[in-house]
Amino acid sequence: MIRGDRIFGSVVIVIALGYILSARGIETSFMSDPVGPRVFPYMIAAVMIVCSLVMVLRPDPEADWPAGPMLVQLAIAFGVLVAYAYAITPLGFIVPTAFASGVLCWQIGGKPVRAAITGMGLGIGLWVLFRLILGLGLRGLPAGWGF
């Protein structure tokens, strides 16, 4: 893992530097806020570089990789997250979020009924937060269903 951490850290540093170079091309208007469209990517890249330098200079010792049932659990979680990304546009925010968070809650040891209730609560609660409180243009349900 030591060599892997160093390689990964080096690759992320290169990506962060590319991120900085692309952010240099962003034009700012005279009325932008202090953390405008150019400063924010710089801040993200700086955090990426600091974290990557830690990985390069102080890598973790060799780690045990998961095997057997844990790999199946990871594959299920990965599949749920990929399906979530594809389902959120046609189905809106609430249904895919409720399903994905319910499945992930169940995977980490929750009981099925509680996981389903948690999923529904997260789907609706996050939609209320993003749409009604923060004012984001987020469609809650599929097109034509009213929200």
Features:
mainly alpha; membrane; flat; single chain; 147 residues; transmembrane
Counted beta strands:
0
Helix content: 55-70%
Radius of gyration: 20 Å
Please count the helical segments. Answer: 5
Name the structural class: mainly alpha
Describe this structure in words.
This protein has 147 residues and is mainly α. It folds into two domains: 2-57; 69-133, no CATH class. 68% of the residues lie in helices and 0% in strands. The chain has five helices and no strands. Helix 1 runs antiparallel to helix 2. The longest helix is centred in the middle third of the chain and has 23 residues, at 69-91. The chain is flat.
Please summarize what this structure is.
This protein has 147 residues and is mostly helical. It has helices at 2-23, 39-57, 69-91, 94-107, 112-133.
Topology:
Blueprint: H1 2-23, H2 39-57, H3 69-91, H4 94-107, H5 112-133
Keywords: Membrane, Transmembrane, Transmembrane helix
Transmembrane segments: 7-27, 39-57, 116-138
Domain DUF1468: 7-137
